[in-house]
User: What shape does this take?
Amino acid sequence: MQININGKSHDLPDVDPDMPLLWALRDLLGLVGAKYGCGVAQCGACTVWLDDMPVRSCQLPLGAITGREVTTIEGLAGDALHPVQDAWIAHDVAQCGYCQAGQIMSAAALLKRNPNPSLEAIEGAMAGNICRCGTYSRIVDAIQTASTQLQSLSFYEVGQGTPERQSDDGVSA
Amino acid sequence: MSSAIDKGMKRRDFIRYSSFGLALSSGGITVLAAAKTSAPANALNPYVVIHDDGRIVIAAPNPDVGQGVNTALPMIVAEELDADWEAVEVVLAPIDATRYGAQFAGGSLSVRNRWNELRQMGAAAREMLLRSAAQQWRVPRGELTTQPSKVIHPPSGRSASFAELVAAATEQPVPADGEVVLKARADYRLLGQRIVNAAAADIVRGRPIFGIDVAVPDMVYATYVKCPQIGGVPKAANLDEVKALPGILDAFIVAGDAGPPSFDLSKSVHVAGGIAIVASNTWAGIKARRSLKIDWDVSAASTDNSLAIEATALKAAQRPTGAREVKSAGDPQGTFANASRVVSGVYATDFVSHAQLEPQSCVANVSATAIEVWTSSQTPGYAQATLAKLFELPAEAITVHQVRGGGGFGRRLSNEYVREAAVISKHIGKPVKLQWMREDDMAFDFYRSPAYFGLQATLSETGALTGWRNHVVSVSSDGEEANYGAGYRGYNFPDDVVPNVHVSQTLVASKTPTGAWRAPISNVYAFAEQSFLHELAEAAGKDHRDFLMAALGEDKWFKPDDLASLNTVRAREVIAAVTRSAGWGRVLPEGRGLGLSFFFSHAGHVAEVAEVSVSADRAVTVHEVWVAADLGQIVNLSGAENQFQGSIVDGLSALADQRISISSGAIEQTNFHQYPLLRMPQSPKINVEFLASDYPPSGAGEPALPPVAPAVCNAVFSACGERIRNLPISRAGFSVV
Assistant: This one.
């Protein structure tokens, strides 16, 4: 089976098509930024992008992603960190840090769809990501900082393509 | 760019935060490990290694499970060393009691216990660099001083970097404790500042720094299935069928120990019986579990039913005194017999699970003569000791690598999953990663004990608190002592402050394993006592703040110089501060209320105010929480504030709807859909204020949690007039929205 991760094609011969993407990333490809937290799409620690949409990789069988493009936390930054990652450091968001790769992937996807989200839009987009340490207020601050930063940059500098316009509820039309 | 940077946040995104990766290759931690036999040329002591290129490697001795000690502890060393923090590289120290003493994460003790030691280590290393420069330059030591990462000689203007001096400095004798002068607080450059978590750059990149990320050559993957009825052991299973499944390398029965485990951290070698499935990847094992059929022997297993335990306990708690007396002071009997007014309330809390976000995992490599494990344990020293005992090997044959943990909250104090991994590795003769599923974690925790309190108090004619009775009903697995976290521990207030006090205890049988859950004992006592104090204030017709201030009695430090004892001066200061910040006494619209609480634990005096509104259908919105605390000096302002913000969220999470129920010895909840954790939309605005304090620092991980539940429940009473005496509040039909 061929899967596309962070712009690279990987061949996984004889892999079980039922295997969730999470375990393929972690055990077969050594990309361990996406984390196992619940296995039932409740916590968001395993969040990656499937064609720019945040998805829970623990519930996504490999058989369902052929021909699609996956982006993981390892592929988010180029030479420089993504503005969301920068903001996460600036606000010293993390405590244990275990959920944060998933939080960052959800936040970066939100800002790609909606570069200037309201607080309600942020809460709506991030409600699927649990932080057991309780860093929510810092996550909000970091997203707002990254939003300001992103709006001062060309979107071509930080992502591929132009952001879609959409309603303010954080959900793509 | 951001307000955080404007506030002076020191940014460290280029810093490499080393952990097991370096333990396996070469780098700072290997240097430190090598010091066990021969000190490397540039190590000044077990904590400080200075490289020729200017990097200053500082060892972080204690496990970090999110409480920030991998940043805070090296900061203390760096301050006294006068190191440029930008040049500091944090490495996780090897587990070695001879050099690093007790390496554990618990009791909010890391900073408090290591404060003197680490300042001394930093200062001694700095002194060696100064003496080395004095010799080289032939000037009196007294004419030299330091600026970050360099020694300077002001009379001549001469200077040299620590890197230039370190080789010669290693030849200096290690100064004795009395020979170095610690910095005056006014000269601190780092302590008290906002310093970014040393692991932040690795965290935001998703680098492999957690226990679950450890991989070693030739490693295979294991999952371990235990009896849902806790303490049951396997009799037989369809192993041949499972072994034939794709990706499965082996499947076998671990006979194990029958009966539930006990929370005996230093001695327990209990291994629960179960079925080990070894696979070529994690998923193959998960999938194979679905085909597994096991015949269990449950003769020694728990038969607990949590509703029955609760009913027995609540009935007992109705009695004003229990089976045995724990404490008596003054004349409680006379006071209650002659009181003009007696107020009563029975409070109850449930079993709670830790639900740290990273489920337990451990990589173990066991041979006939040696064991090597990588684990996010909060007690790696006990992991080593109990493995040695279980496998009958000398402690020196056991190497334990500490690895960052994805949350702890007390769950990683026990090491049963480390022993399970080692048993499996030994059986298959290969290094193995044992991965617990979330369902394993929820079914086989050491839960927060439920506790039940029959509280009574007497009020004088003028509404003063004159007598206090607490009948604590605790679960007990042996019928002799209360389980961990369910027992009695005096917190000075109100027990040592009220003139006439009687505390008694009754035990209720339970076999479900319990242990330490963030701020153990405190978290249940605070809810019951600080809610009841509000009931008393209401009964006395007094403002809650005024009632608390009066109930605290005279100005007194109960055991002077013991930070772990109550100081009523500090208590009153935090209550005054938090009520000032929250605008205590302001008029609120109907359905909205403020609630106050104070609690002293983990050497921290903490007061909190919550502002809530309650809808007609009992939906509670927590709008804002104010916290004022005296933790002594603050080491890392950003880290301490983060711990406090997180404690508020954790407290809300637990009080809202977290409840473990037990039926026929088995846990009924399996995952987060049945055991909800607070999410961002429910999270309030949180204001944290640390009072200026010259006391030595105490830990920030726990003391802000106990006051959360009573502050919120007192606010609910203020908002709607209903008293909540049972946690979680969902038991009474309330929800947090």
Summary: The radius of gyration of chain B is 27 Å.
